[in-house]
Amino acid sequence: MWTFFHKLASPPHFYDLAAKFIPWFGVIGAACVAYGAIAGLFYAPADYQQGDAFRIIYVHVPSAYLSMMAYMIMAVSAAIGLIWRIKLSHAVAAAAAPLGAWFTFLALMTGSIWGRPMWGTWWEWGDPRLTSELLMLFLYFGYMALRAAIDDTTKADKASAVLALVGAVNIPIIHFSVEWWSSLHQGATLVREGGPAIETGMLYPLLAMIFGFTFIFGALLLGRVRTEVLFRERRANWVRKLVLPEGDHA
Amino acid sequence: MNQPTLNMPSLSSGFLSVVRRDVLLAWKRPGDVLNPLFFFAMVSTLFPLAVGPSSEELAFSGPGVVWVAALLAALLSLNSLFMSDFEDGSLDQLILSPQPLPMTALAKALAHWLITGLPLVLVSPLVAITFQMPAQTISVMMVTLTFGTVSLSLLGSIGAALTVGLHRGTALLSLLILPLAMPILIFGARTVSLAAADDAVSAGVYFLAAYCMLTLTLAPFATAAALRISNE
Amino acid sequence: MNQPTLNMPSLSSGFLSVVRRDVLLAWKRPGDVLNPLFFFAMVSTLFPLAVGPSSEELAFSGPGVVWVAALLAALLSLNSLFMSDFEDGSLDQLILSPQPLPMTALAKALAHWLITGLPLVLVSPLVAITFQMPAQTISVMMVTLTFGTVSLSLLGSIGAALTVGLHRGTALLSLLILPLAMPILIFGARTVSLAAADDAVSAGVYFLAAYCMLTLTLAPFATAAALRISNE
Amino acid sequence: MTELLSGSDLCLFRGDRCLFTALEFALNTGELLVIEGPNGSGKTSFLRGIAGLLEFETGTVRWSSKRVTDDYQGFRADIVWLSHKVGCKADLNLLENLRFESGLRATDEARLQAVLERLSLSRLTELPLRSLSAGQQRRVALARLLLARARIWMMDEPFTNLDKAGHSLVEELISEHLADGGGCIVASHQALNVDGSTRRVSLQ
Amino acid sequence: MTELLSGSDLCLFRGDRCLFTALEFALNTGELLVIEGPNGSGKTSFLRGIAGLLEFETGTVRWSSKRVTDDYQGFRADIVWLSHKVGCKADLNLLENLRFESGLRATDEARLQAVLERLSLSRLTELPLRSLSAGQQRRVALARLLLARARIWMMDEPFTNLDKAGHSLVEELISEHLADGGGCIVASHQALNVDGSTRRVSLQ
Ligand code: HEM
Ligand SMILES: Nc1ncnc2c1ncn2[C@@H]1O[C@H](COP(=O)(O)OP(=O)(O)OP(=O)(O)O)[C@@H](O)[C@H]1O
Ligand SMILES: Nc1ncnc2c1ncn2[C@@H]1O[C@H](COP(=O)(O)OP(=O)(O)OP(=O)(O)O)[C@@H](O)[C@H]1O
Ligand SMILES: [Mg+2]
Ligand SMILES: [Mg+2]
Fold first, then answer.
1. A206, C174, D65, D127: which has the fewest Cβ within 10 Å?
2. Is there a single domain that holds both residue E144 and residue E154?
């Protein structure tokens, strides 16, 4: 078990392994998204209240869910990197942050586009969901700004890991504290007692989109980690062998 | 030769030394205490000026403005929490002293609160009066501000430790701290508004107290870790 | 030996060198540009949060909040205007360079505006939209913000020069600058409010333009004098 | 003569550059360890690494035959660090600064007075530190060494800014400390004239 | 041999203390002026006074037989100042820093490259200055001297943090500058071995 992790954490091994996974993730993700998009946009019944406007759910919910997932990945790998000093997991955290920020941004955008017909406003100050999502975007920004501010990679890794962990402690607090304010936003729809409160014709494309987004996220993450690893190990022998033509690596 | 253990100070002596030194420093340059206060006062007068004076308006937005002003005043003073220690080499000495670093971090945060948070709490009734806040609201405001500023000093010490030596001024620090400080702001302002409307305030006060306890137990460790990293 | 006059650079070459260096520095650490922007965005989100969400309210206080946020963002970034030059000894070198010091001061203020003020003006429409500001108001806001931020950078350079080396953080500086910056804030916010109410705005814009010209001519000399004194 | 400090297989990177690999050193009681090398060879980094302020890429530092990382607090009580920077508050005066040090190190007032005498600083106790000249400030940093009662002194360019009297004072202090059973690690470009056995580590 | 700089009847106070009164000095082309004195005697303050960064209580400094205050800008074009601090931006690299200096002093790129060669800094042009060691940073400060083409060099403890090679490099540079008809004022605790006539000012 331990040796497995040890091997996984070795950059060249990971670099090769990731290369094998990326196409699979990409293909599965694309397939799910294709199904979800077609089924969701053309075949799912229109909502009896919202008409076709609801269809943005197929982007909104997956990105909202991934924005949180990405933070968890970032925080957990930061913790692993800090405690066990595994450099690879710092690379994962660094790679996850911009992706997470993008998905957060996407969730905010789609949500606010959706909010316009639904609530008659792009943005509603003081709504807990909206606010906590915005705060999460700021947490990502803070993480990335701190990283960008420190030149030395190892130092940036450690400092930003501390921040990611502090932020992780705070996410539930942000989440629950803003719940104090009454919400416009949808309550739990999918995961709740008594099963999903959504018609199956809408549900399956949505689930497909969620899976599809997740796999695409996985492929993007692995790809980013690969570049990150390559950059960090630029002095290592295996990278030289990889990059320089045969016989040119003295 | 002396035993190394001879050098080990008692926890409280080291802790008090740090607090005493920082308060003494503030005493030597009273600006450190006075500036955040003036800033606090100014921001709370700027808003009415910028938004326009209409007294129902003012009474309504009073708690929010006071809280934002307090938050900003605290943020502004945080930047210097470890900076001068870093620059004159004292930080090396603090890290290498036999005192456990989280204790030192806690002492620094406490001193920061004594220098900036406490005066702010004490002066807040004056500002509140200009917003026509009634007396019982003011006492709620002071209690929430107390918990809030303590938490801010502690959270801020994490941010200050992470950014020390980067010479980025207050902006980066604020970016790191604001998301964490937001719940304090929301609850603080909200609780004071509730008090003004004669509503129950205990939930808000409990939340702030709990948040304060949480930061009190966790922040010193995060700050210590951050200090070691930043000082590499 | 070389003639001393050989060393005398043309005015524009020295001026441009200073601007180029400061912009280059900001380029090397993009945080200097981005942080005030985020801070601006954050402050304008804090207020609605603290005051409570009600959209007529917001539309009403929008211009005021945007202006206060812009003022604070500018203030916060001012602290570092001369500080790093002072600390690494560059300030001695700038003062002792054959370039006239007021020119150098002007160049520093211009660079500061390019780094913080200009991006702020460019990003302000985004914030304005969240306050549901209509398009013609936004253009007025941008014009007034342009004049306002230029004046703030120039005024701020005086304050930064006076406080450099005092290690007081932003608070003292803000205290010095706020009284001078107050007219900008009041006129700026007021003019935008007038625009929102479809009223005449030219008086406000002229005032801001005139204030900007005034600071442009006087501030460099004040800054130069302050720098010489602070650096003793 | 017991071993105070030793390191084996040390390797340090700064940025992309490897400053040294497989470096060994040892310091016994009563010994002086001089770190030599041209500018940029890594003396300061080496000292910071030993003190635990920087992380070595590989290798371990041992103190009283324990790993330093196993009892870092105990180790910190046994070293005292003189760096390029003075490490005192410029706004406090000499006495206030040294009282603070005493609080951190649990030493008493009598010792403080003795140290001030020894460094002939008694005359300057009232001025805030920022008003002292470069060399006077260095002397204050020296006072910390004497106050700390640590066995291991780590000094980075101790002669910086000191005049001739200051130079010989430092040599004298080191000699006394070694005679007293302490150890000393010094990085310096200037020659040291000290009673006691001297080891050297050369970096390049 | 013409007079470059002279001062008469100079008196300087720091805080309450009078550092010196009725001090005279003169510096001619090709001459070195060494300022000596123990720590805290006022060497740095004296240099800053001459450069116009501090005000003397009484007395005047003359440059090319004018008062310095009468043509302060011309004077500034004719001096270059090496202080305790490096005076460069830690976030920019060597080349960017020196290009900035060139802009302020109107020198050209060819000279810049020559200076880098001379100080053997060519290898370090890519690293930001903050990553350089103490001694490497001092060399960058020396580069400014060569770049400026000013006749009067004012140096406060130029040997700080320099290794032996750096030490002799500084002496060489000064000798060349003097031979070239320049003048040099140095405050230092270390001995200087320079070709050229030397004057001394002693403070105590
Ligand atoms: C800017 C505006 C919006 C933001 C920032 C936002 C944010 C979020 C977030 C963070 C989630 C994930 C919650 C979780 O899994 O715990 C979510 C889910 C969801 N959102 Fe939004 N949202 C916005 C607007 C809207 C609008 C206008 C609607 C439609 C009325 C909507 C409908 C939903 C639904 C149905 C879910 C799935 C809920 C669940 O199954 O738990 N959102 N949104
Ligand atoms: N602002 C001040 N207020 C009071 N005294 C001061 C101030 N600045 C400097 N001094 C005093 O002036 C004296 C001269 O300081 P200066 O830095 O010029 O000395 P120096 O000869 O350069 O010494 P060193 O060799 O240590 O660098 C010192 O004794 C110092 O205490
Ligand atoms: N953060 C960093 N990134 C990259 N390189 C660095 C960094 N810090 C230091 N260095 C390099 O490490 C080397 C060693 O620096 P160090 O300060 O330890 O040298 P030193 O031996 O103390 O030199 P000096 O005698 O000049 O003080 C230098 O060549 C420097 O350029
Ligand atoms: Mg060194
Ligand atoms: Mg001096």
1. D65
2. no
